[in-house]
Amino acid sequence: MVDVWQTVIHTAKDEVPCFKIQIRKVGKSERKSNKARYGTIVGGNVLWENCTLEIRTPSSKVFKRRHFLQRTMYNGVFKNIIIEIGATKKIVNENPDQWFLRKNLLIMRDCFNGDIVIFARVPYKPSRKLLEDTLKVYKKNGSWTCNRTFKPIREKR
């Protein structure tokens, strides 16, 4: 999971831009440091020992945010932890988002509205069939994010 990922397809009503994210592993000593640094933050209960991954994007520094994925008791499912760093540190309420892996795809699902964004490792180009099969699991239609030349994926009728 530690690598550079790029958006491939989305189900959101609004257009999702083509962008890349870097996922890095957070070591044990860094998790301890994060627990000491952020402790109990306004707005959330974070289990820092389970925050084993961090997502970095070009906008992370601009918005002064750190974005972690916290392991859950469900294998392969991660809770979204976004910390806004300013005069006071606080958690951005993004708990409805879940991140998980399926067949070499990273899937971000917003449990609040059902939107899905699928990422693939750069430079991997997943097959149309794999993406269709992934969207079928969620009974969703999808639109390409990064200049794919073929039509948007739609459910077969």
Brief summary:
The chain is mainly beta and 157 residues long.
Q: Helical stretch count?
A: 2
Major beta sheet summary: 8 strands, antiparallel, barrel
Which class do the helix and strand fractions yield?
mainly beta
Mean pLDDT: 80
- In N-to-C order, the SSE pattern is EEHEEEEEEEHE
What is the CATH-assigned architecture?
Beta Barrel
User: In terms of per-residue confidence, which ranges show pLDDT below 50 for 5 or more consecutive residues?
Assistant: none
In which range does the helix fraction lie? 10-25%
Query: What does the oligomeric state look like here?
Result: single chain
CATH class: Mainly Beta
Q: How many domains make up the coordinates?
A: 1
Shape: globular
Alpha-carbon Rg, integer = 16 Å
CATH fold-level topology: Lipocalin
What percentage of amino acids are in beta strands? Answer: 35-45%
Biggest sheet strand line-up: 1-2-3-4-5-7-8-9
DSSP E strands, number: 10
Distance between the termini: 34 Å
